[in-house]
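anyone else get weird line breaks when pasting these?? whatever heres mine. first is seq + tokens for prot A
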Amino acid sequence: MAAAGLILAMGLLAGAAKVDITPTDLTNLNPFGGGSFTAVHDPIFARALVLSEDAETVAIVTLDLPEVGDMTPLRQRIERELGIHFNNIMIAATHDHSAPRIGKVSPGALAQNGGPESDRYSGVVFDRVIAALKAAKGAAQPARFGLAKGDANVNVNRDQYTPGKGWGLGYDAEGPSDKTVWVLRFEALSGKPIAVLFDYAVHSNVTFGIKEISGDLAGAAERYVERNGGDGVVAMFMMGPAGDQAPRVFHAGQRGDVTRDRELAYEANDAQGVVLGAEVLRALNLITAPTSKVRIRVAARDAVCPTKPGVSQMATMTTVRSPTVTLHLSLITLNEVAIAGVSGEVVTNIYRHLRRDTPLSNTILATIVNDRVGYLVDDAAYDKPIFEVNGSPAARGCAEDAIVDGLVGMIKGLD
């Protein structure tokens, strides 16, 4: 369905670009368990979208990576080199578990860390993000925008209770899960597509454990949309409230037969990528009245939570000890559509709370934006020793209200 209540403004300008960020040297770049990737299965990309109207310009960057650390240095560089204000920049990871990470771990965060090889790779990615943004800004042209919603049954709640064993990662078809596929289309005035930005709540970890570079589920969906969504379109995946969401079919390499594990993983990955990508394309066809009259507004806010220690985490998980952890909240609105960014992995129930309280019905939650501090869970979840609670850096009683009240307050405070 198209966005309602549109506010007239000067015409929209939009430009998009993508660049390859596949590492050429795989040494010590595997953030999960450490070590090196063994090969490249398919390339990974940085994708950039630059939108302008009147005096306001925003940039959205998506990266086929598991997480981004503190993106302050890169955002400052973007502001210096491209003139896009620091608060107008969203840099988001797809949470691809078969790729390197970038950036530094923030104080108080629970995140994967890397060594000098990761630092060097981060520098390469930063340079390529700048190149992608310059290309996108240079390609900006008069454009139209439209919104639609779809529905995909690719995700499932992963917090499973087993009698005699307790809580663990698994498959809970009855647990909280948001199936919404948000789809934003940007097209030239001729109708030629420029970019498709889509948001869905699922971990991209279908090929986790195969130890090959891959775009995983998000990358497979992006490829499908780019191949079938029109010549030159740039397809950008943002992860929604997926902190507690696994792919429905998960065949990563943990069964022992390396060849068979690999075959099953990529078969499951491609199938689910097609399902998600096909739903994006179906939703695009629901957009019948895109508009060039777009008003862009932005806001940003930091929320500080007291910390707690992580429990039963991977050995490679790192925390920079601090009594507090900072959550970065960011907001871009396009008329009555809100893209709300949070710098952690948010669970479904927090998004449900946000959807109840937001004054904009078209409020899209994007996670792992501008940092990745760890899991961010609703207050009630702390009663259970689930994986996301164990992996959250935030003490009980802070994150849920900080996110919901912060984002709602930002939306209400827009002029």
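and prot B, same format (seq, then tokens)
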Amino acid sequence: MIKYPLGKFTLEGLSGKIAFLSGGIGITPIRSIIKYAVDKQLGLDMVLVYSNRSGKDVVFKEDFDQMQAKYPKLRVLHVLCEPAPNFKCTVGLINAQVVKNEVPDYLERKFFLCGPPLMVEAMDKMLMEEHNILKENIITENFVGY
């Protein structure tokens, strides 16, 4: 028996402003969501904060660069643990200050979190405890097995 994808990690029923926080290969489902919104010109205001260890670990960079050029309501910020020459990024980890600086209207957004389970758990806790984001405004997906 074949089943179609199930879950709540979709844009179904959403409008307005969305923020995506992702780490590593957890970007895969987020890239699909953003590409759908861009291709369909849904009018969503989207911010992606994408964390990786180094510049060489970033996947889909060219895709996101092209989507930003095509869709002005998409902004992509890279956060790297290690500085990379000729790579525009914030150095460190996604934390409360990064969210405050890069997503100043965070209280107006739905948040999609995807990455390794411990990262997703930490970001979920940070958003609720340090930014007072309501649980119903946070959609999570653990990306395991890598």
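btw re prot B: The chain has a mean pLDDT of 91. The longest strand covers residues 45-52.
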